[in-house]
Amino acid sequence: MALSPLDGRYGKALKELAALAGEDRLIVMRIKAECMYLLALAESGIFKISAADKKKILSLAQASKDAVETVKLIENEGFKGIAATRHDVKAVEYYLRLSFEEKGLGKYIQWLHFALTSEDVNSLCYAVMMRDALQYLLIPALEDILSALRGFAKTYASDVLLARTHGQAAVPTTFGKEFKVFEYRLSRQIKQLKKQQISCKFGGAVGCYNAHAAAFGNIDWPKFSKNFIETFNKGRKSKIFLWEVATQIDPHDSYAELFDNLRRINMILLDLSQDIWRYISDGLIRQKKVRGEVGSSTMPQKVNPIDFEQAEGNLGLANALFGFFSGKLTVSRLQRDLSDSTVLRNIACAFGYCLTAYKALDGGLSKIKADTQYALEQVRSHPEVIAEALQILLRTYGRQDAYESLKKLTRGKKINSEDIDAFVENLDLTPPQRKKLLSLKAEEYIGLSAEIARKVYL
Hints:
Layout: H1 15-21, H2 23-43, H3 51-61, H4 65-76, H5 88-102, H6 118-155, E1 160-165, E2 168-174, H7 175-195, E3 197-200, H8 210-215, H9 221-230, E4 239-242, H10 253-281, E5 285-287, H11 306-328, H12 339-344, H13 347-365, E6 368-370, H14 372-380, H15 387-396, H16 402-410, H17 417-425, H18 431-438, H19 449-454
Parallel strand pairs: 3-4
Antiparallel strand pairs: 1-2, 5-6
Helix pairs in contact: 1-2, 1-6, 2-3, 2-5, 2-6, 4-5, 6-7, 6-13, 7-10, 10-11, 11-13, 15-16
């Protein structure tokens, strides 16, 4: 009955993400934000609170499933004399009012949601949820892929592979070096991703601390807000921070920076998925058979590259959303319009498509193996690929028409090693020069591929 495959087909694999970034977590975080803010007000000296009452409020901050359901009732249907608010954050405030009364905390109710706008609460909550999803799920999944690529680069460092440029046979490379290309690219982006910080605002109705200053002008509210936001970074590698100059909403520039970073990562992984798909298609990479798995409903012989195809599709979906988010969320009419609200609720969906893709890709990588013998045979069947080496060496020997003569011999033609040997024998060369040219073998013409594949760069 799920409308989205994220909650249906892929739901089981995304339970952890739902727990960190789903609708229930948003409500839990709102409850926590309101409780912690009230305690921060007390710590600033605005009012006094006993240790016992503080303990009760901290307990309420760890919202239960029942608490979440009660908030939903207050928002949508009404509860215990409270009419349906049709406002998600106000529903949280009213839930806490009821809870405070039940726990003998009624004297603190006046400080709930004090001088805040809903966006202060929401902004903090979304920042925390994205931060946690990144730190605990997305980055580890990406590091699993990175580890697999690093392993392939090392394992196949010296195993020759015919490179293709414009789809045509070019010069040899190695499997390891080509895996290294993706490892290097992905490593750079993960390093940037780990440094990404997510902003939130906490300055009241239009970001000016109007109500705060009117009530307690002696308090440095920007400093208070900055310190309060910082408390949510305890024990976290990824950080959130206060956007100090805002309107009613965070401008979401840091969101765009994050989303664009993820888009770059996803494009690298999409490129990888397509390349592996092609290597599989060409027989250069073989897939392990999984017992019981079906490749086709009618063709029993097939072992389809479904993991890489699934990754490609989900990466595209994620990037479509990220591109929209970056363009949409950074634009707001005057000090605030509400069109960002429903968009923000879909960030977890983009993360879900990412995580589905990352898991599929990692699973696919665990089931492949390079067919190094077939790759070697393919290189040997294209002796013309040493034409580059021949013409470059002939230049060093002083021959000015080296390129043109090799072009005449090889371009668009199917030649064999005997043709190349005959060409070399007819050249005016010294014996050592001729010997060197005749010793060239396509499978050995790999340059520094192995060294590149084995080197640790980042």
